[in-house]
């Protein structure tokens, strides 16, 4: 899990002594100066590929596991939720194009956004009875818990990797 680090301009300047940091700082300077909206919130520049930065909360109750994900502006048709074994996968993709001509001006916008996040579930769930709802940009997935299968112990016989060979006895020569 990523940890938050407070931005310190002094540390940034001191890092310029190292050649590699200089390139990173200069790239950031040019991106922020000439393309301020190309990478909002640290997202990659166009085209935006699948990202794993989907904000997710997960909690457990007595009867179910609840997963909530923030998907602002998405509709239920844009979202796919899938349970495979002990993994929950949430995919959301939206493409929007707008072409408008009014009062002597022409507006053309294209937007694309995609998220994909796979989570390993901490308990066994009944995937067929899962329910997902999207309300006000918040996806809620309810996964009923399955009774844990009993853990059975199986004894496995250990064999030698090299077979035992009887060697002839060597005696003293006469």
Word description of this protein:
This protein is mostly beta strands and 174 residues long. Among the domains are: 9-38, no CATH class; 50-92 and 114-144, Immunoglobulin-like, CATH 2.60.40.790. Helices cover 13% and strands 36% of the residues. The protein contains 2 helices and 7 strands, in the order ααβββββββ. A 4-stranded antiparallel β-sheet has the order 1-2-7-6, with no helix packed on it. A 3-stranded antiparallel β-sheet has the order 3-4-5, with no helix packed on it. Strand 3 (79-84) and strand 4 (87-102) form a beta hairpin. It is extended, with a radius of gyration of 29 Å. Mean pLDDT is 77; it is low at 38-50.
Overall geometry: extended
Architecture of the domain at 50-92 and 114-144, CATH level 2? Sandwich
Question: Beta fraction of the residues?
Answer: 35-45%
Strand and helix order: HHEEEEEEE
Helix content: 10-25%
Per DSSP, the total helix count is 2
Layout: helices, strands, pairs:
Blueprint lengths: L8 H6 L4 H16 L21 E5 L3 E7 L8 E6 L2 E16 L2 E16 L10 E5 L2 E7 L30
Antiparallel strand pairs: 1-2, 2-7, 3-4, 4-5, 6-7
Q: Which descriptors apply to this entry?
A:
174 residues; mainly beta; Immunoglobulin-like; 36% strand; extended
Summarize the structure.
The chain has 174 residues and is mainly beta. Among the domains are: 9-38, no CATH class; 50-92 and 114-144, Immunoglobulin-like, CATH 2.60.40.790.
């Amino acid at each position: 899990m990523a940890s938050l680090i407070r931005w310190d301009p002094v540390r940034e300047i001191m890092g310029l002594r190292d050649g590699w940091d200089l390139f990173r700082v200069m790239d950031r300077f040019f991106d922020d100066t000439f393309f301020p909206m190309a990478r909002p919130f640290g997202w990659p520049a166009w085209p935006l590929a699948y990202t794993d930065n989907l904000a997710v909360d997960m909690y457990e109750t007595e009867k179910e596991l609840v997963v909530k994900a923030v998907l602002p502006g998405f509709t239920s048709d844009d979202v796919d939720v899938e349970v495979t074994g002990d993994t929950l996968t949430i995919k959301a993709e939206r493409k929007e194009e707008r072409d408008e001509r009014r009062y002597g001006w022409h507006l053309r916008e294209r937007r694309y956004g995609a998220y994909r996040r796979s989570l390993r579930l901490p308990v066994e769930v009944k995937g067929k009875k899962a329910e997902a709802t999207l309300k006000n940009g918040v996806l809620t997935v309810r996964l009923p818990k399955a009774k844990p299968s009993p853990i059975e112990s199986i004894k496995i016989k250990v064999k030698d990797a090299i077979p035992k060979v009887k060697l002839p006895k060597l005696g003293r020569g006469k």
